[in-house]
Amino acid sequence: MKMKPRPSAIQALLAFTAIFLTTGCAEETPERNGFKLTDLKIPLEEILSGGPPRDGIPSIDKPKFIAPDKADFMKDDDLVLSYSHDGKTRAYPLRILVWHEIVNETIAGKPILVTYCPLCGTAMIFDRKIKDEVRTFGVSGMLYQSDVLMYDRQSESLWSQLKMEAVSGPLSGSGLELLPSAHLTWKAWKEKHPDGEVLSTDTGHGRNYDGEAYDAYFKSPNTMFPVPQTRDELPKKDWVIGVIAGGKAIAFPVKTLAEKREARHGGVTVKYDPDSRLATATGSDGKEIPTTTVFWFAWQAFYPETALWKP
């Protein structure tokens, strides 16, 4: 009887690989920066490393606050993000947030998530209570469309700031509630809230809060990371006021708003003060709508169907 030749090691490996691929076990769960990327809501290839490792940009988890007259590190034209709740108002200077990007905070009993992405210019505040659990957040070190990807330490889910939802992990698809906040100059904030509190530079981390981090980036017309550009009505880094109303996105160009002071589109009214750089939005019912000051390239990337207000 003629013996069948034994398969070579290479042939055996190829056969095993074919079976492995057929059974769907070849691809392990992708990982980035120590995160298992399960139930992805965004393309894997569009998740980019921003450079730092997980928590390489440290969140502020035990924020300290001081009176406005004690904040001698602030300049009149510095920008702050302000939030008020139950009679208490606090300011979060962008010159501090640029080094940390996240503040896990509780104001008058309300847990909030203060976020800032210098690459998109987006300073946004969300409710930290998600699915009946107060969560704490950190910086993943990764980006999606040039915007910070955050993570919550309870579930290790990844969250997109501008998309305002979890894009990976056990909470994938869950939304973040954007809270109304004010984005304005330090001078204007002090005059409006003399009894308010401001985030202290005593963060527990050694950073140059007197410097002008990202100054060269803000002055450049270019982005640092590739972002899909499907709308070219405005230069990439023109500022717009982004609003979501009735499930639809609207962008109000700041340059035109500064001239007109007021704009109406799709039942939304936006008022803008060029001196304080404060934008406020209300719906047709007169209720306040959260606004986001953002570079045009980022807003059109996340909301490609956005309406663009023109006078």
In short:
The protein is an alpha+beta fold and 311 residues long. It contains six helices and 25 strands. It folds into two domains: 31-199, no CATH class; 234-308, no CATH class.
Architecture overview:
With 311 residues, the chain is of the alpha+beta class. The protein folds into two domains: 31-199, no CATH class; 234-308, no CATH class. The chain has six helices and 25 strands. The protein has helices spanning 9-22, 94-100, 186-192, 215-219, 254-260, 296-302; strands at 31-32, 35-36, 47-49, 65-66, 79-85, 88-93, 102-107, 110-117, 122-127, 129-130, 133-134, 137-144, 147-152, 158-160, 165-168, 182-185, 197-199, 239-245, 248-253, 262-265, 268-273, 278-282, 288-289, 291-295, 307-308. It has a five-stranded antiparallel sheet with strand order 3-12-13-14-15, with no helix packed on it. Strand 7 and strand 8 form a beta hairpin. The radius of gyration is 23 Å and the shape is globular. 37% of the residues are buried. Residues 1-26 have low confidence and may be disordered.
How large is the radius of gyration?
23 Å
Which spans of ≥5 residues are poorly predicted at pLDDT below 50? 1-26
N-end to C-end Cα span: 91 Å
Number of domains: 2
Helicity, as a percent range: 10-25%
The secondary structure category is alpha+beta
- In percent, how much strand structure appears in the residues? 35-45%
Mean pLDDT value = 92
Q: Helix segment count?
A: 6
Molecular shape: globular
Biggest sheet strand line-up: 3-12-13-14-15
Sheet of most strands: 5 strands, antiparallel
The tally of beta strands, per DSSP, is: 25
